[in-house]
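Most newcomers find our protein records easier to grasp once they have seen one. A learned vocabulary of local backbone shapes supplies the integers on the structure line. An example says more than a description, so a record of this kind follows:
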Amino acid sequence: MARWLFKSEPDAFSWDDLLARGEAGEEWNGVRSVQARNIMRQMKIGDQGFFYHSNIGKEAVGIVEVIAEAHPDSTADDPRWECVDLRAVRPLERPVTLSEIKADPRFSDMVLVRNSRLSVQPVTDAEWDAILERAATPAAKD
């Protein structure tokens, strides 16, 4: 199973919004990056990813599952744009912030650190495990 990270501005579409969709989930639409679209084309049903709040919060907050593979984006007039459908699986025990990720050398090669603008990105198994580990431990006091 491949792992991913999906970024959304929480004032536009948040973790709570996806959670409210229940088992039906939601199209991950509106992505207009060729690179992100091509990444979504690689996704398979059952793949999991982190839901990441960008701009406000800048933190991984939950785990999502791909429930439909790449298909035409219903919000696009151009058939080149595709998206996947996601459903919320569970929140992380605690959010893992971008500052925590950047401070941890295990994430030095993570796409989130190297290409912060990419809205849909792959996550390695080691990165996945390390974020879950951080989420299960109390945040360090600044």
